[in-house]
Amino acid sequence: LQGLPGGGLNIGFEAVDRHATTALRDRTALRFVSRSLPAIDLSFVELTRQTNRFANVLRGLGVGQGDRLFVLAGRIPELYVAVLGALKNGTVVTPMFSAFGPEPIATRINLGAGQVLVTTDALYKRKVRSMREQMPTLRHVLLVAEDGGITHEPGTLDLATLMHDASDEFSTVATQPDDPALLHFTSGTTGTPKGALHVHGAVVTHFATGRYALDLHPEDRFWCTADPGWVTGTSYGIIAPLLHGVTSLIYREEFDAERWYSLLEQERISVWYTAPTAIRMLMKSGLALARRHSYPALRFVASVGEPLNPEAVWWGKEALGLPIHDNWWQTETGGIMIANTPAFDIKPGSMGRPLPGIEAFIVEHLEAEGEPPRVRIIDAPDVEGELALKAGWPSMFRGYLNNEARYRKCFDGDLYLTGDLARVDADGYFWFVGRADDVIKSAGHLIGPFEVESVLMEHPAVAEAGVIGKPDPVVGEVVKAFVSLKDGHAPDEVLRMDILAHARKRLGAAVAPKEIAFLPVLPRTRSGKIMRRLLKARELGLPEGDTSTLEGGA
Ligand code: ATP
Ligand code: MG
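A: This is the predicted complex of the input protein with magnesium ion.
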């Protein structure tokens, strides 16, 4: 990292401009690939010019530092240009999933008092136009027309025309490390999504974790499969690889097992960052498919977002020739905090160890539900408690949007409380137990869903599992599992009994599920996380709560 020539720190400058005057200038920064369209390669110097144009477009509209821009689009080049150009202009960026429906879009824009929206002509007509009146802060809507055309939609501006007319020279705004850069909404796995505010100083974490956790080096060809609508898609789908001068593959379409394997091979991907949900889908489609290709360029595979079952770590070795490195972080942390890195052996099922500069602890709460919370660090290994981090790393969130009280409740002194339960072993490896909200209390035991789900996934027929506690008058809660099956298996009584027997043998009767229900797919967020709260609400006939991020829900 370099800092701005005249002082200041800006994510856009570090990710893009900095490389335009070095030997990297003509290297491909972003490579967009899709089935139906020719590939588009944007070099660092070209990306610099385009983001300059976009920053000038904003400036021309009177949009400046601290103003808020939302993006709603699939993986189109304009999205990447808009995000980076806005950062260079000091404008705060919020990405949204393009699959969101009109309600979640309007809610977020209103919550964040968004002034500018960048989206496509089609998405605007389908999802935004009818709500426009209800978004009073929104001053400018910039549209990307289909097929490089021009839009004449009333109340909007054609982005291509504005870009064409704008200068490709821009001097990046001298933001300071504590100036706001990004506003990210959490996944909504445990409740209504929260808006987490991040600053330009986060770029230090993006850089360090790109090196230590993902092992990015300039010759790499990197592919992050995360949707650009959430934090992983921004921190690692856009920023971190650019910081390292790496070529990023952006595959524009959705998951397809055969296609993904071909891309890994043909695009000579060397570092791959994906998610347990994707890995489970690949596992579901069978090893034979994986083995139709070979992956000589691939040297490092990592995963984030949910616990990575040991099964999946080993599957990586069989299918790709490499184990999968799990790492842990949250929207709030802005970047990877705990990771299995190339520097240490993987312990399958563990999230790894805190990265350099990160201090992680297991803490216990001294009193129930206090405000402010009071906790004590547990010094002994192998004891379950809440995962906490020493506050102050550069990409730490600086607030929840419009919810200062909630933010304060995340801290006890200089400890940030993550809301996740874990334990740490004597070698300093952290093991995920479950989210505090998902933990099951049964006959005096605290049961983490992950442990049960991992065991269920060992069964050859099980593709994925979600486990909840179901209220029970005698033991408090009983464990109920929802299971979806691998291709080629049909749900029936014999299979149910077989899975139950396997779980009981591995976990003991107290922890094993009492009930198993088969579902074709489990409800998940758009970021790929199993929504246990929804499994529970549906099981108990309770209201489903906020489902704005539910996949397939809009
Ligand atoms: P919400 O906060 O709205 O309920 P969310 O917590 O799922 O949603 P994110 O910030 O996208 O929103 O996800 C972070 C959470 O994902 C972590 O707190 C943790 O529960 C889970 N997670 C991420 N990586 C891992 C991992 N490697 N192992 C286990 N859990 C993980
Ligand atoms: Mg969370």
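Residues 44-60 form the longest helix (17 residues). The two ends are 40 Å apart (CA to CA).
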